[in-house]
Design goal:
This protein has 270 residues and is α+β, with helices and mostly antiparallel strands. It has helices spanning 12-28, 44-60, 75-81, 132-138, 160-165, 213-227; strands spanning 65-71, 87-92, 96-97, 102-103, 112-121, 139-149, 172-175, 191-196, 199-205, 236-241, 246-247, 253-258, 262-268.
Length: 270
C-alpha cells in the first residue's frame, strides 16, 4: 500500500482511517486486524500520529487526560519488537478503577494484567533538558499499581506500530491506597509478586523497568516535552511492568505486592 522508504506521517487520510478502525474496534469490543501493514515499516512517527488522533477524539468527547503510561520498559521485549526505547500512551480519567472494585467484562476485549510502580507528580515537568534530579523533586508520592492492558488488535498479534497506534495497548489501571514518599524507598531492588486467588502468577523487581522505575519516568518526561504534551502536577505515571503480564481469567482477583509500597487489587467480574 505504501512505499516502505516513505514516511506515512504526512498522509492525514491514512492516519485518520487507521485511527477510526481502532476506535470502532474499541467501541464494538470487536478486535480488528493488525494495522502495521498499512504503515511503512518502522514509521514510529506515523503510529504516534494515529495515537494523537485518538487522543484528540477522546478529549473532544469530554474525557480528561490525567497521566501517561510507559510501555516496553523491558530490554528483552524491546529487542523482540525491534526497538531501542520504550513507548508511551495516554491515561484518561475513565480508565481509573478503585482498588478492589469489580471490573465489568464488557469494558475490555482481551485483557491482561501487569504490576507496576505508579508515581503521582506534585509539580510540572516541562522542558527537554530535565534531569533525573528534576524528576525526583517533582514526584509527590509512589503507589503500587496494576495496569490492565488490552489490545484492539485481534489475538494480540502486535508489533511496535500496532501497540503505539493503539495507545500503547492501554485499557484500565488500579492504584493502591497507601501513598509513599520516595525517601527511604529502594525501588530498584523492590520485589514484586502478583497472585490470583493465592496462586503466584508473576514476579519481578524494580530493576526490570529500565534499571529503575524513575529512569522510565525521566525518559517519559523528556519525551512528552518534545511531543508538546509535558507532564503536569497531579498527573499519574504508570512507569512500566516489573514482571511478565498475565492473561485475565473471568472472575479472577489479582493482587500485586511491591516491597515498600504495599498491595493493590484488580478484581474481574465472572
Amino acid at each position: 500500500m505504501t512505499n516502505p522508504d516513505t514516511s506515512a506521517a504526512g498522509d492525514k487520510g491514512l492516519i485518520a482511517t487507521i485511527a477510526e478502525r481502532l476506535r470502532q474496534a474499541s467501541e464494538s469490543r470487536q478486535p480488528c486486524d493488525p494495522i502495521a501493514p498499512l504503515l511503512p515499516a518502522g514509521d514510529l512517527e506515523a503510529a504516534y500520529q494515529v495515537q494523537e488522533v485518538g487522543t484528540l477524539r477522546a478529549l473532544a468527547d469530554g474525557r480528561a487526560l490525567v497521566g501517561r503510561k510507559i510501555g516496553l520498559t523491558s530490554t528483552a521485549v524491546q529487542k523482540q519488537l525491534g526497538v531501542d526505547q520504550p513507548d508511551y500512551g495516554m491515561l484518561f480519567d475513565d480508565m481509573a478503577i478503585p482498588d478492589g472494585w469489580e471490573i465489568a467484562a464488557d469494558r475490555l476485549i482481551q485483557p491482561k494484567v501487569e504490576a507496576e510502580v505508579a508515581f503521582v507528580l506534585g509539580r510540572d515537568l516541562s522542558g527537554e533538558r530535565l534531569t533525573l534530579a528534576d524528576v525526583i523533586a517533582a514526584v509527590d508520592y509512589a503507589v503500587p499499581a496494576i495496569e490492565v492492558v488490552d489490545s484492539r488488535i485481534a489475538g494480540w498479534k502486535i508489533g511496535i506500530l500496532d501497540t503505539i497506534a493503539d495507545n500503547a495497548s492501554s485499557g484500565l489501571y488500579v492504584l493502591g491506597n497507601t501513598p509513599r514518599r520516595l525517601e527511604g524507598l529502594d525501588l530498584r531492588l523492590a520485589g514484586m509478586a502478583m497472585e490470583c486467588h493465592g496462586d503466584l502468577v508473576s514476579t519481578g523487581v524494580g530493576a526490570a523497568c529500565l534499571g529503575h522505575p524513575l529512569n522510565a519516568v525521566w525518559w517519559l518526561a523528556r519525551t512528552m516535552a518534545r511531543a508538546g504534551r509535558p507532564l503536569k502536577a497531579g498527573d499519574t505515571v504508570l512507569s512500566g511492568a516489573l514482571g511478565p503480564m498475565v492473561p485475565v481469567k473471568a472472575g479472577g482477583c489479582y493482587e500485586a505486592y511491591v516491597a515498600g509500597l504495599g498491595s493493590v487489587r484488580a478484581r474481574f467480574a465472572p
